[in-house]
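Q: Hi! First time asking for a complex rather than a single chain. Here are the components, and I think there are two in total. Is that enough to go on?
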Amino acid sequence: MESLNSTLLWLSAIVTFWVSFLPDSEGQGWLYDKTPVVVRDTFPATFGIGRAATSTEIARLDIDVRPDGKGLPPGEGKPAVGKLIFAQKCAACHGVGGIGGPNGSLVTTASEGTKKRPEKTVGNYWPYATTVFDYIRRAMPFSEPGSLTNEEVYSLTAYLLTANGIIDEKTVINAQTLPNVKMPAQPLFIPDDRKGGPEIK
Amino acid sequence: MKKILRLNQLTTKLSRRAMLGGTATAAVAIVQTAQGKTVQESVSIAELLPDDPTKRVGPLAGEVGTRSSFEKLVKKPSDISSRSPLQDFYGIITPSDLHFERHHAGIPIIDPARHELLIHGLVDKPLVFTIADLKRFPSVSRIAFLECSGNFRTGKETMSPQDICGLTSQSEWTGVKLATLFREVGVKPSASWFLAEGGDAAVMTRSIPVKKGWDDAIIAYAQNGEALRPEQGYPVRLFLPGWEGNTNVKWLRRIELGDAPWHTREETSKYTESIKGGKIRQFSFDMDARSIITFPAYPKTVEKGWIDIRGIAWSGRGKVVRVEVSTDFGKNWQLAILQDPILDKAHTGFRYLWYWNGVETEIMSRVTDETGYIQPTFTQLIEARGSDGGYHFNPITAWQIKSDGRVLNRPER
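A: Yes, that's all I need. Here is the structure of the assembled complex.
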């Protein structure tokens, strides 16, 4: 009896030892089968780490634009103005009129469109016009990213849409009109439907 | 007699001629002269390469280790990417300096003391975290591969594993679970997507379903036991196990929670692929299972006799359960031995011992993952997609074994 008690005492000591070394529920890679797993309920609701972001600093960084127009800034642009900026700041990489530059065409012409493998451009492959604004503003021109004003970005967007025959030369592009531009490629896009398993997709 | 205390910088390749001649400068070293003075000077090959290393004391310990100058491992960089030399590796961890790279406006130089991560949008408390803040949270580590979804090339016999699919690498990634930060900011139930934004000159962005953030996303600040390499997103990156490389946004500066994807440039005009019916597949996150024999492979040559065929296999959907090897043009397949550890969403080593009788043949491998997906042939992929390339192309790679022992890629087109 005494030896049983002492065994129990030992067992309980071992279990206590174990438990004290088990990780909390956030731990990874410590999953031993059939060991008593203690899920600690002390994972705090908050660690209190990090500081509150001010609306000013959020506004400074929050430059993204969605297809529904959320994020587009005030201002507007015209194709004719964009054409001049394009010739000056973009044509060296993307070709005169947005065709055939060393860093890829942005414009699909009627003849290009009939080729078996037409080059992917804003006109034939970009599903949302808002992406044109977002990308130019965040990353272009390549050698001077972030240097364009919102008005310049609107004008360049308007120019590329006109050159691709998507809007006419009179259309003014702004936060209201840009989300309404229907892109030719949009109906082609479908979400990924691969799910693993034997099917090759 | 001067004594070499420490090597500073090895010059490029030691050519055989230079070694025999013993005249060319091999390295800049800290040396102790016969008079006991410590100076920095050039050291010749002859001084570095004694006839008998047991008869000369070598350089003493340095501040960082160096790769032997007899080993020449290179990433083969282009303007926008570099590729891991898979044919030169022996295990499953990619040495950090040989991890593949892909960037969209160069590698930014970021002072970690000034870098912050902002999380905002559909959250209760928008917060800003410094790198020091991120390191205070409970940390996690996992070994997983990272692969660019544009990781396929063919067309030439003289292509190595690095040339064909060197845009995959593997590291142990350490950081804080994004789920932990999600709790800290209080992600609202209405949030279904988040935008991850980099602090590079492309200010690159990708939209990610919030579920991935809760499941296994890591805000990683370390790689293989040390801080991230600049090429890998120093000081902090998003790491999404098993998902296409581009979604693992480097130099992470901002996460915004929202109720719809943003349809950024990278997830619309790039990193999408043509499929049947003229459609374009978008948000193709999972990396399909893939394998490749890395030995024997071009540019190595083989001799008649026993050959230990080796390679790596991986899946973005879980563990590798089986790798088969064919040594007869894909007619018959035998099980390869999988090398432990076999980890979830990780490069896994395999080998198959083969006796080559000297007759020309083709060898290849195919992997099956735990979802039952079997790596397809190039032809199967083309039939399934109705296109002949693009992103997420993971075909079986075949190596031709020529009768003279040359090993050449079998081009798919």
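A: Chain B has a mean pLDDT of 93. Let me know if you'd like any chain examined more closely.
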